Amino acid sequence: RGRVAHFDSELLAEAETSDVVRARHEMERRLRHAIETGGLALHYQPVVALPGGQVTGVEALARWDDAELGVVPPDRFIPLAEQTGLIVDLGRWVLQTACREAAGWPAGPTGVAATVAVNVSAVQLAQRDFLDDVVRALADSGLAPERLCLEITETAAITDLGATAARLTQVRDLGVRLALDDFGAGHSALSLLRALPLDLVKIDRSFVERVASDTADAVLVRLVVEAAHSLGRRVLAEGVESDEQARQLIAMGCDAAQGWLFGKPEPASPALTERLSRRAVSGPRPGPGAARCC
Ligand code: C2E
Ligand code: MG
Ligand code: MG
Ligand code: MG
């Protein structure tokens, strides 16, 4: 009223952009600080064998509860860490910590100690000294290599399949197991199952979600299981939430599962250690070339 105000959408967009950029920088700064000062934690989610549902291991999942930002989900801070290069230090910390904690889980009455799966980003895998990091994490912790499983996603393989396969073969020669994570989430090619030295294929939650209701997805899961098995890979279903899904997945021949039906991610604790040692399932020890499950 009685005034003229100029609205400049470009200026507004600029101001908004700089807000976003500032917030991102602030988050990056705080994440770096968290990595350096022990501000991250690991939670562990059980991996179970099908059809029995016995715990065979866990997957380590990074958690960040920041004093100012609150809980930041991995789907936000992992991509940020990948874009800024912080993933190298973050990933090294995860690897070291998961190996150290898992080394403290006794074999218990079953005689076979639980495995621990660690997510490895494509950026990390491409580092020249990645293999050294794995060797060091095993040596420092004393964890048997067979108890460590590294999970990679197809993005790593797609950028440079030859280099990725060579790198993974070096890791597997240490005795460490390998899993392809989130299979089916992107442009997953079945040829990857053959090109990479994998022990395990993890079928993405988006398929598992619809396995009991969508026949097209059920057909795809069945095909992946068949292809993986015929190549000597085992198959795990991610994000299993209902009995009905578990029943379907068992009927399809899935070897293992993870999901809220069996257990949510939880911090390391004496109770978790106790459960892992009691319920770690014993199986035939894999011979050379035999299919191994993470
Ligand atoms: P992911 O490796 O595929 O891990 C599985 C994700 O599914 C986890 O999410 C887990 O909490 C969630 N989940 C498990 N069961 C269920 C279920 O029954 N229902 C539903 N709705 N969700 C379930 P989270 O912990 O939020 O992690 C998300 C992603 O962040 C991970 O997906 C992984 O790609 C990445 N991530 C987490 N920790 C690390 C890490 O240490 N390093 C790297 N490079 N990536 C990580
Ligand atoms: Mg994973
Ligand atoms: Mg996954
Ligand atoms: Mg994922």
UniProtKB/TrEMBL annotation:
Protein name, entry field: Diguanylate cyclase (GGDEF)-like protein
Shown residues in whole-protein numbering: 321 to 614 of 649
Domain EAL, residue spans: 24-279
Domain of life: Bacteria
Species in which this protein is naturally found: Modestobacter roseus
